[in-house]
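Problem statement: downstream parser choked on a complex file, so we are re-checking the raw output for the PBG run. The parser issue turned out to be on our end (a line-ending mismatch), but while we're here, posting the original submission so the record is complete.
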Amino acid sequence: MKFFTALTLSSIFAGASAFSAVAPNVGNTEPVNKSLKGIDSNEDVFDPTGGDNSALIRNNNDEVWVPQRARPRRNRKNATMRGMVRENIVTPSNFIYPLFIHEEDYNTAIPSMPGCERHSLENMLKEVGEAYNVGVKTFVLFPKVPDELKTNLGQEAYNPEGIVPRALRLIKAAYPDSIVCTDVALDPYSDQGHDGVVENGKILNDVTINQLCKQAVCQAKSGSDVVAPSDMMDGRVGAIRDALDSEGFTDVSILSYTAKYASAYYGPFRDALDSHPGFGDKKTYQQDPANGREALIEAALDAAEGADMLMVKPGMPYLDIIRRLKDATPLPVAAYHVSGEYAMIKAACEKGWLNEKDVVMETLTCFKRAGADIILTYYAKQAAQWIEQDGLY
Ligand code: PBG
């Protein structure tokens, strides 16, 4: 019995070398004479402990001494101490795992996102199960919609038999306590490749919101726990809140893409969904990467309109925006570690230029340090598996 307890304990602390008898490699083991006297053959070598204004002095043992009281390195002296004082820890419950889905009955690789696939609904459920087993219980769905279903008004976005409602019902039936988030925007359903309805090169704000309200209610009816408007129209959070509430969905949360930038980092995502803009760009609705204060305007509006959580997107290049939102609002803040960021890490790791596990866990921790409570990342399942193997980082 005791034996089994020990086994279980050591597997909980998996990776902790404290239990191992193997001596760690500590480099040089020869004692260093800390007086540092007589070590230089050349007499002319500068002596930092000499002269009237010496940089260093000597302690009671004649060892060289920087008379420094505050030594921050004391709090870093070993893994246990670092663990005790660590400010930010990433856990699988912080993650939202984005999943691409399509109508086919097989998976398709996404060349610009190695390791990510467009899932058949059956494989999506398998992927959800694998992530769920390592503690990732929140998902967001992104559909690739066949071209023949795309229109300028994006009517397929609120087809109750569309792919997202069907996927939602499948996941919620199999994993009732999972959280499934759904993206609210027209781009996967738009024959114009834009997040809103188009007229003469313009994206129509209010007409788009009318459609988004139908989309959000349709998703709520199919079991969505959290609707996530990513369209960046003005006033959409308030309208969606009212639409949900008036239909009885007061419990459905809104995770607003508050500060979503017109970013070049979305390229691989648009490959995955085949949703590149049909003309122009998204700069009349998504934010200018040069601007920070604008994010505060969006945050104040979203909070006033009833958003439950605010998102910054992309993540890594916008850590300053995450921090500014965190300081400006008591609402939880999410960071979207987007497709282009994922692709950059994957590409460098494939070349052997970066260590994938180390760089990913550092990146995710940095999101938390910047102020993110929630992290949307294509690495969610993988990172949770690493955490399970190695213990918390
Ligand atoms: C579109 C949407 C985009 C992403 C999430 N929702 C792309 C875009 O605005 O063109 C990008 C996510 C990523 O790059 O990982 N509503």
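For whoever reads this later: Residues 333 and 373 are 5 Å apart (CA to CA).
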